[in-house]
Amino acid sequence: MTDSAQILHRYELILSSAVDGIYGLDIDGRITFVNPAALKMNGWGLSKKHLVNWGICSTIIAKKMVSIIRVMSARFMPP
Q1: For residue 16, which of 38, 46, 42, 44 has the smallest C-alpha distance?
Q2: Which end of the chain has fewer surrounding CB within 10 Å, N or C?
Q3: From start to end of 4-78, where are the E strands?
Q4: What is the distance between the alpha carbons of residues 42 and 56, in angstroms, rounded to a whole number?
Q5: What distances in angstroms separate CA 29 from CA 52, 68, 70, one per listed residue?
Q6: Domains of the chain
Q7: For residue range 58-67, what is the model confidence (pLDDT) as tens digits?
């Protein structure tokens, strides 16, 4: 393993063990890393495989849309 690969692996281990949700983004705003805490917090039940390479704007918009649909359904749909 090269030095840079060892450093990257070490950082991933540290970030993966954090209790806070952590997303890593590239310069274009795509998700490159998601730790287990962030996966639990997103509430969608999506795996790391599903979130990596998503644009963060797409992720936020999708989450907001789910929230809006739930609120609207609760207000306007009969029980």
Answers
A1: 38
A2: C
A3: 23-25, 31-34
A4: 12
A5: 11, 23, 27
A6: 3-76 (3.30.450.20)
A7: 666 666 666 7
